[in-house]
Amino acid sequence: MSVGLLAVVDDILSAAMRASAKTAGVVIDDAAVTPQYVQGLSPARELPVVWKIALGSIINKYVIIIPIALLLTAFAPWVLPYLLIIGGCFLCFEGAEKVLEWFGVSHGEHDSDEPRDEKKLVLGAVRTDLILSTEIMLIALSSLDPGLSIWMTLAALLVIGLAMTLVVYGAVALLVKVDDIGLRFMKSPSRAVRRFGVRVVASMPAVFRVISVIGTVAMLWVGGHLVLQNLEETFWAGPYELVHLVTHAIEAAGPVVVWIVETAMSAVFGLALGLIIVGVVTGVQRVGRRNSSADAGH
Predict the structure, then answer these.
(1) Rounded to whole angstroms, how far apart are CA atoms 139 and 13?
(2) Per the confidence metrics, is the pTM higher than 0.90?
(3) CA 239 → CA 50, 98, 127, 148, 257, distances in Å?
(4) Is the dihedral of CA 257, 237, 30, 272 positive or negative?
(5) Which terminus of the chain has fewer CB atoms gathered within 10 Å of its CB, N or C?
(6) Rounded CA separation 125/271 (Å)
(7) Radius of gyration of the chain measured on its C-alpha atoms
(8) pLDDT tens over the chain, length 298 residues
(9) Nearest Cα to 72, choosing from 147, 134, 143, 165?
């Protein structure tokens, strides 16, 4: 490999690493959201389903997000905030649905006694990944040096997309197989190792409940933040200015407190918006069912 090519590869990797650092928060959200999609599957199907979701994530990034982001950045950058508002509303909607399910309110037709449909499960996970991956890649794109050529930018985004997918779905695969690792520990000849294995297996239901809550809050946080931030750039700056006003008032408390408060406000906004969207969708579905029943009666 020539020195010139090595220098180009080094430049691409350096740019990708710098840009990736700014996506860490959304990557954590993505890793927290995804495990809830494989809950309830048989152990033998967990890793194959994670692999399908990971493959869908790569397709999202390489076939949809990166080409469209580059085209829009070059020819219609004003469209991006509107797309992010739509994506944020979708995340708020999904998060609000899950919150309602915690309280026994089921939106749509779900039958918990039936086995989970893998195709629908993977489709739902890949659909949610599309929104989260879009934010990851747009943050990465905005963090790259504007002076990079289009081909260097493309190469850096491809590296970031692959690295983020490996990190997220590698972590997800590990999480969903921890209980199997615990079962193997339980077969060890060492009594201490067996006890540790028992504790690992016994703790996993609680771990997945916590992950489910974190994933739901993450969807509301990211969705609310996306809508707030992009509303400011498009239709209405008021809600985001209120967040800025509150965070500015507590700056003396330190950056950690400011981040917690800003995150909480984004999540609350996301939940409120999500509940409104759930109400609208439910109303539209009821009207549609009534019209269908009326047509069937005729």
Answers:
(1) 17
(2) no
(3) 37, 24, 27, 35, 20
(4) positive
(5) C
(6) 20
(7) 22
(8) 455 555 656 666 666 666 555 555 566 666 666 776 776 677 777 788 889 999 999 999 999 999 988 888 888 888 888 888 888 888 889 889 889 988 887 655 444 445 567 788 888 888 888 877 887 787 777 777 777 778 888 888 888 888 888 888 888 888 778 878 888 888 888 888 889 888 888 887 787 778 778 878 887 888 898 899 888 888 888 888 998 899 889 988 888 888 889 889 999 999 999 999 999 999 888 888 887 776 666 5
(9) 134
3-state SS, one letter per residue, for 110-149: CCCCCCCCHHHHHHHHHHHHHHHHHHHHHHHHHHCCCCCC
**Residue with tokens 């800003």, as numbered in its chain:** 262
Closest C-alpha among 91, 126, 35, 101 to residue 220: 91
User: From residue 79, how far is each of 68, 230, 240, 243, 254 by CA, in Å?
Assistant: 11, 11, 20, 24, 35
